[in-house]
Every structure is written in structure tokens, then in C-alpha cells.
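User: quick one, fold this
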Amino acid sequence: MGWTISHADKHAGVMCPSYTSISELGPHLAHVLSSSEWRSVAFLFEARSDAWITISHRDAGRMARVLSTAASHRLMPTDRAAIVAKLAAAAGRAAAARQSWEWH
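Assistant:
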């Protein structure tokens, strides 16, 4: 089981990472982001698996910038950086399309 996250790419449209892989990103993100940046995205990585999260396009744009910062940080492990970069891109696509970014 895993999350279904909208705006993943132009072809598939969604990405489906496992609940565990998303929750394991939290400590890595907290380590490389400032406390205010971490607070802006923390709820995504602490959410219950039965949650339905809808993020406005404005907030998705802000989250895309924060997640991009984390993905490119020198202390972010390469395998985790790839997942975070995909999340940042999905958030950016939702923002650019002026659509809600959804996790369910």
C-alpha cells in the first residue's frame, strides 16, 4: 500500500510511493531544512496512511521550492534526494497548473 500523489508526470499523472518510504523521508528533510522550512512540509511526512491531503496550488508552489532545496542539499542521501526531487516536481506542476496537489 502507498500514497497516490497527483501531478507526478505528464504521462502517468500520479506517483505511488509506499507509506514507509514517505515517512522515512521526514528525518532526512528535518536534518537538511531550516526549522521554518521543515514546518511547512512536515505534515506530509507525518500523515496517517488513511489521510486525504489537498494542498492549494499556492501552498504547492511554496512546498516545491522547499522540497527542491532539500533535494539538492549536500547532506541529503542520493536515493532520498531522488524521491524528494520527484515530489518537488509534482508540487511544482500542480502549482503551475493552478490545481490542488493531492495525496490520498
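User: anything notable?
Assistant: The CA atoms of residues 67 and 88 lie 5 Å apart.
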